[in-house]
Amino acid sequence: MALAPHRPAETLDTRKGADQRAQAARLLDNRSRVAMWLGLTLGLGVYGMFGLVPAAANVAVSATNYSGLAGSSISFTGLHNYVALFTTERPGFVASLLATVIFVISVSLAQNAFALVLAHRLQGTGRVAAALRVLVFLPIVLGVTIVGLIWILIFDPSQGPAEAIANAFGLHSAFLGSYAGAMPIVILVQIWQNVGFSTLVFVGGLRAINPDIYEAASIDGAGSWRRFASITFPLLAPSMTVNLLLAFVGSLTTYNLIYVLTSGLYRTDTLGMLAFNSAFGTSADLGYGAAVSVVLFLVALGTALPLMAALRHRERRLLPA
């Protein structure tokens, strides 16, 4: 009579433990799904309340003559505000669009170029490099009003440090109060405030590059410029994508810093500034300001998406899988 093989107790215990772990994993998965859908629902609800609803209200207001003043009447005007943007009825849109193009391109290119240089110098792990990275990042922490007031004091045409330096060379300028100086200074301040973030992104990208690649290139006789052009710059493509998109969209929608520095005067009236001044300035035309903001959104969407597609294509070309 053949006896059934004896199954060790540890095997039974192992199978029992595996079944318990599988059951716990299924239970955990169910709980995770509930938490995921609950968080997603709450997030979409908050976004809808504070994002989609105001956006829809803004589009609705842009089709009216609402001034935003208490007791003012509201009537539907259709596309009148949008037509006024491109006609002589409300001049200034074309000039604001040109100012926006100059501001966005200058900030996006100069900020990333400067940040790349800083990142190359500050990528070390020592205390000095870390302290310098903190100093470069510090302007981002400061509020826009504080940043604006600091630079207003610097470029004060009567007793500011910039005026003292200019006088030493026999020069004089109204700086923020002049057509020649206002836009370059606004661009400078925008870069100064945000270059720290771009620098940190580039520092992370530089640290992710394998040092052995540089060592092999040096052995092959590649100089510093050759290593940068053939190794560093191509491998920084993901960091460049992030920084260019953030700088582009951020400068395109900036108005608060310009408001503090110049209030949109002296050819610094970008589309964001035009929307703010039209809605809340002396004209008090909330409907027209809402129309400008809708156009600004369409411009941002119509330019940021192709830019992102081009940068992603560049990544795939430089960093093949």
Structure characteristics:
mainly alpha; MetI-like fold; 13 helices; globular
Order of helices and strands: HHHHHHHHHHHHH
CATH architecture of the largest domain: Orthogonal Bundle
Q: Helical segment tally?
A: 13
The outline comes out as globular
* Average residue pLDDT: 87
**Which CATH class of the largest domain applies here?**
Mainly Alpha
- Which percent band covers the strand fraction? under 5%
Identify low-pLDDT runs: none
What is the count of structural domains? 2
The end-to-end span amounts to: 64 Å
Q: What is the CATH topology descriptor of the largest domain?
A: MetI-like fold
Rg, Cα atoms, Å: 28 Å
CATH superfamily of the largest domain: MetI-like
Description:
The radius of gyration is 28 Å and the shape is globular. It folds into two domains: 26-61; 80-318, MetI-like fold (Orthogonal Bundle), CATH 1.10.3720. It is mainly alpha-helical. It has 13 helices and no strands. Helix content is 73%, strand content 0%.
